[in-house]
Amino acid sequence: MSANSAAAKPKKAVSRHEMSKFKWTLKEIKRNRAAYAMIAPFVLIFFIFTVLPVIVSIVLSFTDFNMLQTPHIVGVDNYITLFLDDDVFLIAVKNTFIFAAIVGPASYLISFISAWFINELPPKIRALVTLIFYSPSISGGAYLMWKIVFSGDSYGYANAILIDLGIISMPIQWFENADYVMPLCIVVALWTSLGTAFLSFIAGFQGVDHSLYEAGAVDGIKNRWQELWYVTLPTMRPQLMFGAIMSITQSFGFGAVVTALAGFPSVDYAAHTIMHHLDDYGSTRWEVGYASAIATVLFVIMYGANALVKKFLSKVGS
Amino acid sequence: MARKLRTRKHRVVLNRSRGGDVGIAIFLILMGAFLFLPMLYTILQSLKPLDELWMFPPRFYVISPTLKNFKDLYMLMSDSWVPFSRYIFNTVFISVAGTVGNLLFSSMCAYALAKIKFPGSKGIFKLIVASLMFHTTVSAIANYITLSTLRWIDTYLAIIIPAWGSTLGLYLMKQFMESSVNNAVLESARIDGAGEWRTFWTIAMPMVKPAWLTLIVYSFQHLWNAGTSIYIQSEQLKSFNYAVTQLVNDGISRQGASAASTVIMMMVPILVFVITQSNIIETMGSSGMKD
Lengths: 318, 291
Fold this sequence. Notes:
The structure holds two protein chains of two kinds. Chain A has 16 helices and no strands.
């Protein structure tokens, strides 16, 4: 070791062009020992609990592993069953797409428009309104209050109002009715969805340099729509990108909220999503091979949705 | 003074229309009502005496507010099989241990990725960004296998250690360091003979206080709100949130106590946010993703 480093020392002055790329990389790695030590703990845990699971899921999805017996390779059988024989899975795919396609974009737009409008307020009020808008997303189980508002008996607030107005005569069993359960879950999901993307937009609007607005006004910008389109949006593109990723990822993660509201399984599987299907096979039935196939499909969908939107956003305004 | 002048000039020049102002006000009021009224309802519900909880038709506001529900909650808690202090300890311990480790490891990693050029740094950051694109539900089962191999199932470690590798805080920290820690300052520290570790700890870290506050808040919120986990089976190790949910589900007669517990659960993260809001917004200023 010491002989090695002594031998390496005189080479320090040698420029990059005089050695092979491999040698140069080795040298750079050695020179940056501290950097590698700094990233090591995080990267190790990140690999074990975030990267490894993806690989494990993909590998196990081709087996019939059930946590007890040695797994056998079954090829693409799990996927064939999933798409051809599992009717509930197809319902889950449909519901997941409906849910994500509504909650993702809606939450993104509401976050953006709210942040834009809040930015027009005076600073002190701005902080208060930001707090009010952001609170539902961090208040843990507070969304369960919706279950009381939409409770199935006439003591539920929604039923009482509707009966009082004469619109209905019998209380509606909101969360036990296949027609209402999905829209209600979407509303509640939206209620909790003004999170990280919203804060990022708030900061993005505040960060736009005021002189840009003044310059824009000189160049003939007449109203706040033009100002948004020509000045604000181009400068906020990085935030728009980050916000999109946060919103999309979040829109696939509402399984627990839906379960808390609609129960499991939900009535006629009306609010059954891929997350529920995964939970069911993974941690209730322990059919890990099959569950891994579900996880792999979900992973591909999430990643695909993000990649697609990212590509789209990078073209906006360029 | 200068600022006031500028905003006035800004207004005059840009000719904000009255109609637009009204439209904005209407949108914010409607949206604010949709977001705020359920929160307010929760608080009012927790202050209602029994006869008002069972009033027909149900009433939004409370006539004679009482703290009885909070007392009932306390009684229910002291009657439970596992003492409630144990659930609270579990949540506080996991939140604190998970947050401290995440803060330390993320800051170290963020500093190296943002401020030191070394082979592989770009690739690792790309992987971290990619991880923001999928929700952790997909990895739960594979992680169960890993955790059971490590024999960590049904221990605090099963929750704490994975939290140390959570990526959102690291991402925000790295972006913030990149935009607000001046390279020249770091360079002069290095020339003065400070090693990377010292530069990181004594120069960079004090400059990114908003980012570490943000990371603490995020990590804490996440762990505080964590409910049931498939990794924990023993009742004695379960979280406060889980216990509260059990209480709520136990019976309709406990509506008052359950509202009281929801108020307690939601107040903590909200108060934390109130204190740290300006720092979090500052951090979010650099959260943008440059492709």
